[in-house]
């Protein structure tokens, strides 16, 4: 710059995309913490009145804080806000906000589904999709894949934060001049000593100017926390198993109970309970202090020394540091916890709750009309899901509520692919959907046109295969009441005892094929007036023993060619017999006989008559 203003040989400076010394750092203040995005406010001075905001906002910048022991401590971040705040003398004053790339995820909002991934895998996918690769996993535990995990109308930041809080993952940042890296961890081994001396001594406020970093004051706080954590849940695949998990600590006697605990195995529930309890225990003892130790960084370990109370001295992990610096001086405030205490982030991120009912479309494998599993579950495509392909991978298996569901009994109707269904969520949890009903729409239309068919109620099957579907229909129109039953192919009726059918009017049965009646007892057919049997070809009656035909007035048998009555033993005609228009009559025994016709020979005592030929 023409005036020669420079940041050379100063303990506090800034590097921005505008180049060296275009912006001069007058001071900054802000805070950083475990499992929390840092936030710094920078006061910048420049001889330029016309700084191009587009070259600054959204770009990286770094604060350099010189260390007393040599070297520099950097605070790198993204400039998320830039303000021209007036002028004084030859300078223009600017204010800049510095935040991590992780904070930029607060600007998003989405609804999406993750399936069969662990939380670390979900986080990696989330970060990379947002274009960020400056993160590092320092994990020691093994994580169980989540079958179904939903980001529901929340920012990627909130979604990632609540998942980390749920699993007991924490994060902090490593800074260099060119970048900042998010470190994702789950174990105390990640808390390495702070860069620098590593020992912070407690010194009073009076005295000469210091030549080393020091803590000027501190206090140790201890508070009561829960001593036990219990969780419960229910899993439909093991309905008789009592899913309960309990973990006890050493700090207190009070217990917290959480239901549902979101677990299906007891060991998983115990791990979740341990994480919940450790989050409370991490708040039990807190060291608070002030000073000007420039190398304090959250997530790193240091040793406190020379406190007048010996049991306060020892190893601590920094949880929170608030910085304040000007060109003249630097100071900070801090919070820390004993290094032997595992750290888990508190559960502060709200979990989304789905209020009411959502609509979705039943989906399945290509070409399948029904897609289900052994529990009668289906898969759906939610209308808000932009990534689903409307196939068998669009969601998890979702149970379907029925009117009645018992052990091998109840109602059972499976939603078909393409149907619009209503989905509710157990306890409002977007990860636990259940289908509770279905609705018609402009494509999935009602069985009968409305309002013309408004008096009809029906249970009707799917007719996508062609033909008329199975149906049980009720017509309640006055004067046209009807109960209609249609079987698309076969119909089987099984009655274990009695069946009674009473018809006030007429009954017609039409059979296009054959009719078979197989009765092991007796059949009684009574007609108040006439009983007519007609066969186009043959009418045959077979009796194992007796066959009786009886008429009070007349019994008539006729044939176009032959009428034959035969018996292997005896055939008796006990009525008066009249035979007319015949050529030959053979009588073995008769009462008086009248024969009308031409001359008829009546042999007496002659040879026997020839036998009657058998019926063909």
From TrEMBL:
Its main location: secreted. Belongs to the VgrG protein family. The lineage of its organism: Bacteria, Pseudomonadati, Myxococcota, Myxococcia, Myxococcales. It holds the Pfam family Phage_base_V. The keyword Phosphoprotein does not apply. InterPro entries: Gp5/Vgr_OB, Gp5_Vgr_C, T6SS_RhsGE_Vgr_subset, T6SS_Vgr_RhsGE, T6SS_VgrG/RHS, Vgr_OB-fold_dom_sf. This is Type VI secretion system secreted protein VgrG. It comes from Archangium gephyra. Keywords: Secreted. Residues 464-560 form the Gp5/Type VI secretion system Vgr C-terminal trimerisation domain. GO terms for cellular component: extracellular region. It comes from the Bacteria.
């Amino acid at each position: 710059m023409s005036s020669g203003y420079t940041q050379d040989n100063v303990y506090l400076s800034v590097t921005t995309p505008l180049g060296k010394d275009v912006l001069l750092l007058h001071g900054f203040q802000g805070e950083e913490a475990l499992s929390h995005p840092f936030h710094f406010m920078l006061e910048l001075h420049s001889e330029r009145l016309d700084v191009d905001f587009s070259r600054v906002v959204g770009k990286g910048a770094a604060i350099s804080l010189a260390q007393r022991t040599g070297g520099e401590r950097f605070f790198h971040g993204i400039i998320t806000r830039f303000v021209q705040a007036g002028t004084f003398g030859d300078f223009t004053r600017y204010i800049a906000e510095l935040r991590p790339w992780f904070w930029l995820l607060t600007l998003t909002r989405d609804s999406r589904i993750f399936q069969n991934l662990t939380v670390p895998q979900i986080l990696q996918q989330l970060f990379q999709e947002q274009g960020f690769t400056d993160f590092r996993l320092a994990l020691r535990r093994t994580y169980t894949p989540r079958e179904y995990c939903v980001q529901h109308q929340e920012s990627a930041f909130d979604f990632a934060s609540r998942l980390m809080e749920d699993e007991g993952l924490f994060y902090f940042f490593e800074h260099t001049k060119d970048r900042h890296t998010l470190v994702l961890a789950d174990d105390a081994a990640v808390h390495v000593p702070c860069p620098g001396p590593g020992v912070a001594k407690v010194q009073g406020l009076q005295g000469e100017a210091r030549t080393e970093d020091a803590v000027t004051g501190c206090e140790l706080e201890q508070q009561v926390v829960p001593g036990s954590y219990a969780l419960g849940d229910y899993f439909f695949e093991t309905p008789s198993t009592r899913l309960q998990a309990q973990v006890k600590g050493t700090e207190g006697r009070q217990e917290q109970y959480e239901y549902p605990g979101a677990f299906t195995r007891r060991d998983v529930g115990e791990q979740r309970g341990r994480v919940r309890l450790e989050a409370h225990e991490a708040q039990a003892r807190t060291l608070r202090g002030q000073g000007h130790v420039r190398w304090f960084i959250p997530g790193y370990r240091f040793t406190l020394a020379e406190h007048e109370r010996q049991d306060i001295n020892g190893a601590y992990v920094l949880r929170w540091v608030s910085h304040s610096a000007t060109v003249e001086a630097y100071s900070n405030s801090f919070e820390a916890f004993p290094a032997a205490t595992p750290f888990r982030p508190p559960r502060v991120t709200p979990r989304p709750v789905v209020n009411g009912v959502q609509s979705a479309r039943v989906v399945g494998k290509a070409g399948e009309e029904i897609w289900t599993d052994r529990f009668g579950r289906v898969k759906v495509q939610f209308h808000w899901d932009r990534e689903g392909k409307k196939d068998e991978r669009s969601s998890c298996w979702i149970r379907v509520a029925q009117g009645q569901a018992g052990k091998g009994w109840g109602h059972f109707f499976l939603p078909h692919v393409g149907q619009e269904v209503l989905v509710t969520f157990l306890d409002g949890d977007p990860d636990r959907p259940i289908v509770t009903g279905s609705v018609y729409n402009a494509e999935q239309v009602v069985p009968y046109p409305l309002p013309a068919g408004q008096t009809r109620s029906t249970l009707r099957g799917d007719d996508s295969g062609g033909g008329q579907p199975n149906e049980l229909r009720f017509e309640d129109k006055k004067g046209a009441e009807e109960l209609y039953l249609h079987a698309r192919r076969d119909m089987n009726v099984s009655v274990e005892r009695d069946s009674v059918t009473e018809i006030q009017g007429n009954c017609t049965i039409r059979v296009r094929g054959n009719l078979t009646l197989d009765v092991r007892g007796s059949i009684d057919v009574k007609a108040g007036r006439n009983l007519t049997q007609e066969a186009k070809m043959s009418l045959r009656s077979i009796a194992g023993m007796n066959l009786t035909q009886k008429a009070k007035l007349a019994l008539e048998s006729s044939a176009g060619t032959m009428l034959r009555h035969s018996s292997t033993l005896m055939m008796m005609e006990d009525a008066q017999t009249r035979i007319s228009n015949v050529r030959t009559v053979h009588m073995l025994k008769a009462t008086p006989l009248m024969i009308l016709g031409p001359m008829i020979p009546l042999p007496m005592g002659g040879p026997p008559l020839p036998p009657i030929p058998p019926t063909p």
